[in-house]
Every structure is written in structure tokens, then in C-alpha cells.
Amino acid sequence: MELVVESGVKKMEEGEATRRNQTLICAPIMADTVDQMLNLMQKAKTSGADLVEVRLDSLKSFNPQSNINTIIKQSPLPTLFTYRF
């Protein structure tokens, strides 16, 4: 597949082009448990989200290594992690 960039448009194949800076929908996920987060992530995907922001600070009990590894392995969408103090 050949990729040519011309004036802000990526041409993938003849007659087919996509915008260079395509807008994506990010759904914020806040829940008490990792299982609830994973359920909400699946709902976000079904609803059309392109990625999710997982708010780790919303977890009632946060174990960084275990929780993050579980979410990475089971996430149905690209994931952005945040932890707000």
C-alpha cells in the first residue's frame, strides 16, 4: 500500500483518502472497581467511542500493577490512563 501526503490529506489508494487530523471520541470511565470499568469500556465501544480515558483515581481500592495490567489486557479500546490528586 502506498501512502502519499498532499496538502493535509493522506491518500491510501487511488480514489481513497482520509483526513490527516481525524477527530476521535474519547469516553471518560469512572467506577469503583476494575470489573465495573471494563463493563463501561465495552459499553463505550458499543456506543461508538474510539478510545477511553480510565480515571484510576475513581477506584475504591487501587493496586497500580495489578489494576493497570488487567485493564491493558482486557480493554476493548485504546486506553488513556489518568490519576488526579
Automatic annotation (TrEMBL):
- Which Pfam family is an annotated match for this chain, by its short name? DHquinase_I
Q: Which InterPro entries match?
A: Aldolase_TIM, DHquinase_I, Shikimate_DH_fam
An example Gene Ontology molecular-function term:
shikimate 3-dehydrogenase (NADP+) activity
Q: What is this protein called?
A: Bifunctional 3-dehydroquinate dehydratase/shikimate dehydrogenase, chloroplastic-like
- In the UniProt record, what gene is named as encoding this protein? LOC107764658
